Amino acid sequence: MTAATSTYGPGSYRDKARSGWITAVLLGVLTLIEYAVAVTVENPLLLLLPFVLAKGALIMDFFMHVRKLRTGGDH
Question: Disulfide check for 60: which of 26, 32, 37, 66 has CB 3.0–4.6 Å away?
Fold first, then answer.
């Protein structure tokens, strides 16, 4: 038996799809910023570190569901 999911409301397909698109756009923007910093700064390691950490946090949260694992939510 499968549970029916609603089209609207928290946890709905539209809500999850919107979160996916927002995550993809944020990852793209962070990548563009990283590229711009990497080609303009001679030693960009320390300047790129916050962007790398932010991208890692987005990936861990959206794709790996780390927040849901810590809070005991269903993934």
Answer: 66
Assessment of whether the complete model's pTM goes beyond 0.70: yes
Distances (CA, A) of 12 to 34, 52, 59, 70: 33, 30, 20, 21
Do 57 and 27 contact (CB within 8 A), yes or no?
no
In the chain, the N- to C-terminal Cα span, in Å, equals 18
* Tens-digit pLDDT profile for residues 8-55: 556 788 988 999 999 999 999 999 999 999 999 999 999 999 999 999
